[in-house]
Amino acid sequence: MITIQEAKPIVAKYITQEHLLKHCLAVQAAMEEAARYFGENPEYWGAIGYLHDIDFERFPEEHCQHVEELLRPEGVAEEDIRAVISHGYGLVSDVEPQSTMEKMLFTVDELTGIIMATALMRPTGITDLTVKSVNKKFKDKRFTAKCNRDVIRQGCEMLAMDLSEVMNICIHGMQQYAQPLGLMGSGS
Ligand SMILES: [Fe+2]
To answer: Is 184 part of any domain?
Structure first.
């Protein structure tokens, strides 16, 4: 079970681009909140979230195919490697999310992107962002078109949760990292 202290230096080795690191942090934040929601371990879920895109900067065209070779030498447990790979299910991996943690990771990966973009457009950032605002942007297919809505819907189905409930979890998690995510609003 990886910790955030262990995940940070591994990510620092393989991810350098600012926007990718912010994405990792956003997913960490959402996963921590999701763990709290389910009464699970926020530190563990957050660490998996932070780590999930480990091979993306080096291998953007072969995403999820290089996770094992990067994480095994770091001593990361097989179940954690599996969880990371499962987030690309159906697109770049055939490892199906099974645990609630894996299903949540699969769902929030794309959803945090929409929330981030929505918050960036507002003068108050994410500080008072509501599910309603995010939902509006979710329905606007041209807005952050690269965030795959079908994947998010599929994830909610796996979780048997309403989209609005998962949005609420993501928003609350990300609000706690508003400053490092650059989502405090004007002037942040
Ligand atoms: Fe991601």
So the answer is: no
Residue 184 and residue 124: Cα distance in Å, rounded? 6
Q: Could you tell me if residue 185 is inside a domain? A: no
Residue 187 lies in a domain: no
Compute, in angstroms, the gap from residue 158 CA to the centroid of ligand 1: 18
Confidence (pLDDT) at 92: 95
We report the CATH number of the domain holding residue 64 as 1.10.3210
Query: Ligand 1 centre from 110 Cα, in Å?
Result: 7
| Structural domain total, the chain | 1
Tokens of 179: 């400053």
Mean pLDDT for the stretch of residues 28-54: 98
Residue 186 — pLDDT band, cuts 50, 70, 90? confident
For ligand 1, the distance from its centroid to the CA atom of residue 117, given in whole angstroms, is 14
Please state whether the predicted TM-score (pTM) of the whole model is above 0.90: yes
Residue 123 C-alpha to ligand 1 middle, in angstroms? 26
Pick the closest to residue 64 from 27, 28, 106, 93 (CA basis): 93
**Percentage of the chain exceeding pLDDT 70:** 99
- 35, part of any domain: yes
Q: Give the count of beta carbons closer than 10 Å to the beta carbon of residue 144.
A: 18
